[in-house]
Sequence to fold (1312 residues):
Amino acid sequence: MRMTQFVDRAPIERVEILGKDTIVVGYGLVRTLLEEIITQIPSSTYILVTDTNLARLHLQSFIDAFEEIVKNVVTPPRLIHHAVPPGESSKSSKTKEYIENWMFSNRCTRDSVLLALGGGVIGDMAGFVAATFMRGIKYVQIPTTLLSMVDSSIGGKTAIDVSYGKNLIGAFWQPQRIFVDLAFLETLPEREFINGMAEIIKTAAFWDETEFNRLETNVDEFLSAFRNRDPRTGIVNLSSIQTMLHKLVIGSIKVKAFVVSADEREGGLRNLLNFGHSVGHAYEAIFAPQVLHGECVAIGMVKEAELARYLGLLSDSAVARIINILSAYGLPISPQDKKIMQLTNNRPTPVNKLLATMAVDKKNSGAQKKIVLLTAIGKTFEQKASVVGDENIRLVLSPDAIVRPTSLTSSSHVQITPPGSKSITNRALLLAALSSTPTRLSNLLRSDDTEHMMNAIAQLSGADFTWVRGSDRTEEDVLEVKGRGGNLIASSVPIYLGNSGTSSRFLAAVTTLVKPCTTNNVHHVILTGNDRMKERPIGPLVEALNNNGADVEYIESNGSLPLRIAAGKHLKGGRVELAATISSQYVSALLMTAPYAEKPTTLALVGGRPISQSYIDMTIAMMVSFGVQVVRSSLEPHTYHIPNTPYKAPSEYVVESDASSATYPLAFAALTGTSCTIPNIGSTSLQGDAKFAIDVLRPMGCLVVQNECSTTVTGPPIGGLKSLKMIDMEPMTDAFLTASVLAAVAHDDDKSITQIVGIANQRVKECDRIAAMITELGKFGVHASELPDGIAITGVDSVEDLISPNESTQGIYTYDDHRIAMSFSLLGTVARDGVLIKDRKCVEKTWPGWWDVLHGKLGTDLAGYESPFAKPSSKLAFRKNNGHSLFVIGMRGAGKTSVGGWIAEALKMEFTDLDVYLETKHNRTIPEIIRDDHWDGFRKLELEVLQEVMTKYPVGHVFACGGGIVETPEARELLKQFIAKSGIVIHIHRDVKLIMEYLSVDKTRPSYVDDMYAVWQRREAWFDECSNFFIYSSNLSNEKDKIHFKRTLLSVLNTMTGVSTVHDKIISKARSYFLALTFPDVQVAMPEIETMIDGADALELRVDLLQPAPYDSSPSIAYVQEQIGLIRKYTDIPIIFTVRTVTQGGRFPDTDYDKALALMLLALKLGISYLDVELSWPSWMIQKIVSARRFTKLIASNHDWTGTWQWDGPEWEAKYNEATCGREVWADVVKFVGFAKSRSDNIKLEQFRVQHGEGSNKLPFLGINMGKVGQLSRVLNRMLTPVTHPLMPIAAAPGQLSVKEIQDAATLIGED
Ligand SMILES: NC(=O)c1ccc[n+]([C@@H]2O[C@H](COP(=O)([O-])OP(=O)(O)OC[C@H]3O[C@@H](n4cnc5c(N)ncnc54)[C@H](O)[C@@H]3O)[C@@H](O)[C@H]2O)c1
Ligand SMILES: [Zn+2]
Fold:
């Protein structure tokens, strides 16, 4: 296949290295480089070494160009070539030896010149051949991956791998030339491109802040250019980014060339190139080959940046920038990254192993580890790697932390600026963008929400953002915002806001300001979010906007994102009414947009006292800071007048720190008798938690000095805190955890009890925080109990009495809740033997640098900890369920009782509701139990009951668990273990909206309807991980639907439990067929489905042909789930679930592996009979599917759309071996689809069928040829022949016939 366009027009640039300008960079260089090589590095023999991928794509053009150039030479040189298999395994001594022998046999000599055409593998290996062949021959690097262009081809390091490690045998051997031809990138797969980006980001991160800024700004351009591939050839059109790409590559090359030239053999400076590599290599040693080098380096960069932050060298925001840029380019930022876990099948990364690998790093000096430490983006601590103590590295790599008592003494005074408040950050970003004057924002919080806000503003051309170094006091990064005064321009790309409620609400209003983009003819903007955001309400705001002149439409469901907002429809201003009792975000959104309405606006909040007034006050106060005076009406309550004047930003704006976060350092002072100042939160703060110092700490005996904008707390001598008796923390609920740990050591002469009330909402936060505090305080020996809306804590008499929950007792469990982790780490600073905090990373939600502050500023010794690792057993053969008891879980109201009952009926088992079981056992109702024993008492009993039935009733029962069972970590563990041991846990679910409707009429249970979404959000992932099957329980309004549902349920259960005989039946038939459904929405086919499937044994759902989700190229998971539900409502025919990629003749994007995998795993969870698994999917994906499947049959399929494979050729033979003789044979059916160009292709297929498809121990074989000529093969195939039906909109493949046509033809040719 000819791929590269060898045009010699683009500019060529040369870069000097080691005193010679041997690096040549350009676009379409092949001719030029060959001419230069032939004239300037003359030889009689040129040896081209490449890999087979590149040979297929580029070799022929290379040879053609060579012959063209030498055709008039009198004694032309010859070009010999050899292609090795692609991949790291070719960097071996075996390959090296093979090539050397091949060179000898081709009479190569000392004057031969080797050309290494390929990525780093070829460059390293062939370079090493050149370095040693006859004591060294000349060679030329022609890198073809982004990574090799900017990194491996430059510097002269060559190497191969040995069993002791990577790159351990090699030589420094400089190439004569390095030709960097960017045109090769046109064929580079996306993942390889991103892999190379990691090295480019690395170079910018330690060397060049301007380049880093540019990379940040241009993420979208780069990625969209790279994702925009010709669907047929997979080639990218790089023209839109050619210039940028050139600059980017040249920039990186120059740094590497400079550093190498200054330090060819790695003394100091060259080590800087290893930023991210010391730790990255340690991960690579574990994750390779599934995870690529650049991907491991990305994780390494994050860890090494965190290390620099821990050592007090690097700011929070610089670390955030590194993390954000890496994830923006699609690189992993942690070893727990979802993709990494998938690729490596959850391979563990024990800290000891990582440290051991790091110990053999070539740059270490003796036993001391050396790591490149950043002090800012583009700056390093030393001009070389620095020595870092093991204990620091261990902490940064460890999941848990041991906090030891502080070394600060009572006279110590610290000043701490916690990260900015999220609410203020988001408002500040928006107001700065809407201003016509530039401003510098500092102390911004970097979080998903704020990233979405910034990206959206940038996409609407609303402002220019530049990160700059803080001018005066700190190394803190400051964001320079050049606002455009509300002149936003419509963008054709939908604006994605994730699950950010604030951004969605604020932007829905602000986006009404956009003007059409005349150059690109864009007249509206689309705001969209993730699936959860698409369920969250926005209706009242949209209504208010539309009533005031805007034109906002819903694209999917009414009342939620996505929205289509017309450009150029300005708000008119005047009177706007909004219900006061709904979200304050709507009010803030309207307030902030109103200054740009045509007329002044009067916003009246009607219908009672507004909720969250403090947020409204915050918005108004901030608008004042940005030059717009909002006036409260003196006549009407809750009514505001907003002038139509433009915003004017102050030249600098410091975002107030988050007041909830500030409670931790202040509480530290209170506990330890030291002083702490928060410099930017004072009495004028609008954050509720800002009252903590005055209302909580002062009554406990602290000295509190607060002025308008700062707060200083000095604690009493250790042990001197007084208990509070009773405090209502309703105005600052999030701070109750901080107060609780103080109460734990507060005491009085009479009764040392502190009762904290008004915090009922804390039961439905990240976890049931009240229950969690009681449990975890107990581990310190502190008694606490639950109050109806709070907690009562009995303080110990002396801190000496605190028990230290450390390694020996498994420490403090943090429930993935940042506040629990931070609160209990405080107790560790006074408890005699400290405290072990598990999963310390959960603090990152609000304060990523908390541990660094605790260590660096608050003087505590921290140690990294990792509990001895228990590797999850991945491969367990599933046995049939044979009457084993099973569990159903799901939200209350999702249909567990009814569906669970039917399941029991279908499987002839007994149904038991565990809530009822529990009530009977304890002879009390659940409300009574909760009243007397509180929630945690109930949860304990619930857990007990679960354990009990699991051991007591292993067979014959269907148990329905309570909706909250997954809240208890131990219960989740039990369920997961149950699944791991072949058990069945079915998650039953229905639309959350339906559940809400259902629950709002059920008054017999404690109500949590108001927080239903929060509850579902919290539990969704738990339900998912604790179940291995999923059943969607639709609303069955009539008896007929019910009967249908039950009939289908039975056949689904048969697949789930392994008693299904569907497959055996099909393979025993003389002829079987499946009908391929090719509808975008199967609904239309359902009325006729019985007719259409007549004669078919199965129904194939072509998932790739289903309606894609809006702005996506494939259908959403929810949609597919629904479509399966629909089919099952009408028929119980076995379903074949197929996701066919573009290359395989379908519509599914070729490389969207994550989505494809998610869909296929969904099929397994739904108990689908057959899953089609293309052999061309990456092996990690196949492994995932294989290990998750139970009784779903897998069809190993392969398609040759090119029509070039012969049935008697090597390709099909190889594929057949792959499907049937792999390390683990997983296929139940082999399905091969070729293409017939002539009749003989059908005959060859029949021979193949005879050879492979028959005989006792062979797999059932389905083989057909596409195309008109191939139709005969459809008649000759007997097993599951794909068929179409006249009622189908399109045939699934060219040449497809109907059952009737096949049977008629078979009769005609005497086949039946
Ligand atoms: N010598 C050094 O200084 C140095 C520095 C960094 C990395 N390395 C080494 O580099 C190697 C990794 O290099 P890599 O990332 O380039 O991997 P690679 O050479 O394995 O190439 C990656 C994949 O992309 C394919 N490919 C390459 N160019 C292509 C193109 N233009 N179009 C389509 N497909 C193409 C290859 O066939 C291969 O499958 C590692 O062995 C690493 O140790 C060396
Ligand atoms: Zn590297």
In short: The chain has 43 helices and 50 strands.
